[in-house]
Design brief:
Radius of gyration: 15 Å
Strand content: 35-45%
Shape: globular
Distance between the termini: 20 Å
Helix content: 10-25%
Number of strands: 6
Structural class: alpha+beta
Amino acid sequence: MYDATNLDLCRRTNFAPLADLSVRVTRTDPKLPLARQGSSCLFEMRTAGDHRANLLVEASSLTSAEEAGRLYTATQQVTGMTADGPAAGVGVGEQAEAFVKRSDPGFKYTAA
């Protein structure tokens, strides 16, 4: 069984997919996910144009596929995000789904 507890996600997160945004991390905040076992890291960043950006990376240890389904449904309901399909690049035997949200000014929010 996979255990996401005590992962150093602040150190292990790969920013290569964000290279086109030219972000620089200004602060990290490792913390526990709300209401479930796992790890997370909040990255506070600035873009090349000095716009603020945040990225929350979270890994949760869930006991079943049904529990994972409930978590994704709750995430979608609470955040107002819409499903964007399966997330690419996960390991063999692992699944991940992505969500996106666009605001009026054109900002893009993503959760996977």
